[in-house]
Amino acid sequence: MLDKLSDLLAAPRRGPRQQSSKVAMQGNDRARPACRNILGIMLALASLTACSTPAPVANTGALALFNTCTKPLYPRESALRDSQGTTRMKLLVEANGRVSDGRIESSSGDELLDNTALHAMKTCRFKPAISEGHAVAQWTLLTYVWTIENPDQRPGRP
Predict the structure, then answer these.
(1) Which of the residues 13, 90, 108, 155 has the least number of beta carbons within 10 Å of its own beta carbon?
(2) For residues 132 and 123, what is the distance between their CA atoms, to the nearest angstrom?
């Protein structure tokens, strides 16, 4: 449709009919300059509307700023039991980037490890989630892996 409008606007304007012409002007010929002006205005408005439409805003989830987090200390009792595993937790990150709530999504198998990880991750600051250009509260999934790096250096071992 825009091609037809462009062709109509680009067509050369006809000047006044010569007196020698025996063909009478028809209704469409008289309306053509007016249509061309109206179509030009419509195209101009459409292009202005397209220019004024804001670009879509990307929605993002909350991101942990790990340099603000307290690293969880391996609980002595869990290390003595050789407990290891992965704690998955859900944290409610508010629009200001602070954690207001948290819960264990899946356990490492050691309740002490899970609670230690959850407590430490609640101290983290986050870059909040963005929705439609505004910071919003959002539940965020976070995983902490517990591993004993060097079994010979566990607490209580010589």
Answers:
(1) 13
(2) 27
**pLDDT value at position 66?**
85
Helix axes 27-52, 2-10, angle to 10 degrees: 120
Nearest of 94, 87, 102 to residue 62 by alpha carbon: 94
126 DSSP β-pair partners: 64
Of 106, 107, 115, 108, the residue nearest 85 (C-alpha)? 108
Give 150's Cβ-side CA count (13 Å radius).
5
Contact 74, 148 (CB under 8 A): yes
Q: State the residue for tokens 């959002």.
A: 138
Contact in structure between 132 and 57 (CB atoms under 8 Å): yes
Sign, CA torsion 143/70/115/149: positive
pLDDT tens for 18-56 read 444 344 444 444 545 555 556 455 555 555 455 555 555
